[in-house]
Structures
1.
Amino acid sequence: MDDGDPNEMIDQRLAHEFLQSPKGAKLLHCIQCGTCSGSCPLAESMDHAPRELFALLRDGEVQAVLASNTPWYCVSCYQCMVRCPQEIPVTDIMYALKQMAAERGLAPAGHKLPDLYRAFSREIEAHGRVSEALIMARYGARHPIDMLGKARLGLKLLARRRLELIPRNISNRTNLTLNANRPQCRKKF
Amino acid sequence: MPKKVLTYGFFPGCAYATAAGYRESVDAVNRRLGIDLVELADWNCCGATSAFSLNQDDALILTGRLFALAEAQGHAQIVTVCNACYTTLRKAAQMLEQGSPDLARVNAGLAREGLRLGRLLPVRHYLEILYADVPAEAWSAARPEYIGRIKVAAYYGCQLTRPWADLDHAERPALLDRFFRRLGFQAVEHSARTICCGASHALPYEKECRPMLRRIVEEARRRGAHLISTLCPLCQFNLDSLQTPPDAPPIPVPYFSQLAGLALGIPPQRLGFGKLLIPAESAIAKVV
């Protein structure tokens, strides 16, 4: 350990780790053409559109990348990924960044997708299958305003018998997780 | 009508149960055509985009368990009715190929309930079954004459044709259009076939996703489509629930299986049309 700026050291360590990983290494082929940003349906909402995010990553600004909302706005349409002339698995890199941020408790607090995904995962853990209504109930406990706006829609769905309010349990729910230390990881974000 | 029974392992996915008439229409079409979709016993959620966003190990055990169940239950193929299930399973299949470092860990997890991942069964979308496995003549036998006057915009959504799919071109697919023509409908040319609907982001970020939905709907309208038809529960839900165009009536969004049922002469009330949020009856009555 030298006495450099601790933030910079963390960045360097994370950048090294990420760019050494099989997916991260592919970023070294990025030619910064911007096809990914131009293809992204939600680029306008992102702190950094994908091309810019990859420039930051290669510059070693990993903490800024992990704290940004960009990977959480990725909607997994894979348009960038099928278009990238360098065959970089852009969407899968976004997944890797989300996993890295989630594991380290660095996911941006202001973004709502971590809460939605967590609600989804909790439903899977609890029942093995998910129902939209029950995910919404969990998510809505943290974001009641979003749910209020959906009250009329909820009634329409109810009238059409399209709300599933009783969970369907599978027989072997305890086996649906591999990662022993995950509860601890989850708590952080 | 073909009397030979076509049998498949069926992974319905979580959204199917509450989807607007999807199950009703798939069941009615299957009965008519002699297709037997055998539901995987004790199936679990595929994890969709959510599991892969948080933890790859969890995502792989969810998908790995489905492949192992299907194999243990003696199926030869897995059929899905949801774009997200389709892509998630096909993506996982590639990650869990023989020799992958993930395979051993997933198998160690599955062993706790006596399952083992051996052969990764092929994953197909129900559209492929209707298009490739059902003889083309089956669709014209009982076709009502009004079908030919209905213009449909085929909407594929994003995930169906993306990286791990082998059924069509990633950005300019034609399979669903060809299927609608085979059914006797007019499939309109349009440029919004694979524009993303916003998927699960449309709930927390509705404002941001509305331009995407508007682009799909306005393109269909500009091309004179009476209906937009989809093959994914999330696409259908977003297009059906978030269409609020200020200056034009909304365009109904039935499932492709509901249109398949109409072409077979099955009455709309037996195809779950009553479950759509935007009623389709008046749009259809206009051309009848």
2.
Amino acid sequence: MSKSHAIFVRYIDIGESEDQVHWNWANEVKQNGSMPMFVYDPWGGLDSINTSKIEYFAAKSKELNTTVFIVFGHEMNLRYYPWGNQPDKYKEKFRLVADIFHRIAPNVKIVWVPNQNWGYPWGGVDYGDGYSEFYPDGMSAYGEYVDWVGLNFYDKDWDENNLVTSGFFLSNIKSGQDNTDFYQKFAVGKNKPMMIAETGAFDPNKDPTSMDNEIR
Amino acid sequence: MNEIEQAENKDDWLGQVYNASILKTELPRLNAIVYFHVSKTESIDTQSHSFYDIVVDYRIPGFTNVYKNLISDPYFIGGEEV
């Protein structure tokens, strides 16, 4: 008998929090014995966040009556997203969002998920090691803002065309840019459970380096 | 790379990520792994920070059993039986 997945993930725009399709999906996930995880991103920018929409989403999460993971503003250390590379504002909004979920839906686990830091700041502003300056430390009346820490990374970057290298998974977690040990600093140091919130490998033939060569 | 070689490359990565003995000893707080089982268009940032789109296929190869064999280790609990 094959093993079923524990978590399924859906990427959504906070601005579309009231769309019933998310809850049809989440109920289907629950009925299959799995937990839903929402990557909950402010595609309108950090200043666009509407607290009533988040309160609605938190209430719907509570109704689900199972563990729900919420990743707010994933890969915030990248510069490419409307919420990216703005550590102070990101942390302020993370705390706001986390407090709403913790107040309304105790079954929600708030997850903080940067991208692995090799290459940081990727053409953006360099604020530090690529992780620490984005971590929303501290706590409110509802407890600490972060419930889980996570990391996203793949077998290589898009500007690389190498094959998978031995030991890269472990070394990327424990020996990142600036000698940052994500696992020790955030999972152990902050006393949090950790997840890899995205990983995968892809076809090196589709790497942009080779495409650049073709274009030239 | 042909399809077999691509699958071998992905299977090498799966073997690192879902290595139960490494997870138990080196990363005991790593409690969940989400594999991005998707083929999608990605906007690529070049060295000059101009962008163009390509299709990137991250999906686990369907014709090998590497992933299923790895997660059959009892360290991976999976979802509830329903």
